[in-house]
From TrEMBL:
Record key words, sorted: DNA-binding, Transcription, Transcription regulation
Name of protein: FCD domain-containing protein
SMART domains for this protein: FCD (SM00895), HTH_GNTR (SM00345)
Species whose genome carries this gene: Marinobacter koreensis
Keyword hit for Manganese: no
InterPro entries, per the entry: GntR_C, TF_FadR/GntR_C, Tscrpt_reg_HTH_GntR, WH-like_DNA-bd_sf, WH_DNA-bd_sf
Keyword presence, NADP: no
Gene3D superfamilies listed in its UniProt record: GntR ligand-binding domain-like (1.20.120.530), Winged helix-like DNA-binding domain superfamily/Winged helix DNA-binding domain (1.10.10.10)
Domain HTH gntR-type: from-to ranges: 1-69
Length: 258
């Protein structure tokens, strides 16, 4: 990997970890070159790469700033900055699962309270489609089942947020399908959790629906982490070969606010 790519990767790590926040000004080329002990030409190339991926933006006469990664659904397609960060930084899979656990738990709670007869019909249809699909290739119907529950929450903000993130969330479902479903015991647990979630929402049991929805996503996250800790490779739907391991740069950029 070229030095400029290593530098851009380290800067992306700082953004993911909150060391550089959306809207925050990036330190000057001179400051970065001094702190990272590389030439300004390499810094310039690294920043150019980040700009090309939409991770940072340059404002004429003001400098470079961290871009808003989740400004709207239009920014979350396969070419958006958040997708690029997902591809290059394995830990973002677990960040996304944390978001799913909280938001889908609340969506299930609200859906159990608010679902209309039409909502219940759609949820049932999505659940049947999931049941009828090969568990080794059912990422889309799995995701469709969860989205049907989200839409039944009748909370437009919640629906908008999760719909805007749907491409990212689909990748977390695909990770479960690729890594967990081939293992019989894990697959049986996931099938059972889906049935429990369906029953809780259809039976209008909000507390139970939230508990099951959160436990389901947490199970997926925990099992994937266990696999990695045991030395097994976790298959991700998107991955950039050759990404260097995360490192500690020792630089605190919080002090360089605009």
């Amino acid at each position: 990997m070229a030095i400029s790519q290593e530098i851009s990767y380290r800067l992306e790590r700082l953004i993911l970890d909150g060391g550089l926040a959306p809207g925050q000004k990036i330190p000057s080329e001179r400051q970065l070159a001094s702190r990272l002990r590389v030439s300004r030409a390499i810094i310039r190339e690294a920043l150019h790469e980040l700009q090309g991926r939409g991770v940072i933006e340059t404002r004429h006469g003001k400098g470079s700033f961290v871009a808003s990664l989740v400004a709207g659904a239009e920014d979350l397609d396969e070419q958006g900055p958040l997708m690029h960060l997902f591809e290059g930084h394995p830990r973002t899979l677990y960040d996304l699962l944390e978001v799913r656990e909280q938001l889908e738990g609340q969506a299930a709670f609200l859906a159990a309270q608010r679902a209309t007869s039409l909502d219940r019909h759609r949820i049932t249809k999505a659940f049947r489609a999931l049941e009828d699909t090969d568990p080794l290739s059912n990422a889309k119907p799995d995701h469709g089942f969860h989205l049907a529950i989200v839409e039944a929450s009748h909370n437009p903000i919640l629906v908008h947020v999760l719909n805007g993130l749907k491409n990212m969330m689909l990748l977390t479902v695909q990770a479960a399908v690729s890594n967990l479903n081939p293992r019989e015991e894990m697959r049986k647990t996931i099938v059972r959790q889906h049935r429990q979630l369906y029953d809780a929402v259809i039976s209008a049991k909000p507390a139970s629906a939230r508990k099951v929805a959160m436990a389901h996503v947490r199970f997926v996250s925990d099992m994937l982490k266990d696999m990695e800790q045991q030395g097994d490779k976790v298959i991700r739907a998107s991955h950039i070969p050759g990404a260097i391991a995360p490192d500690q740069s020792g630089i605190d950029f919080r002090r360089h606010s605009p």
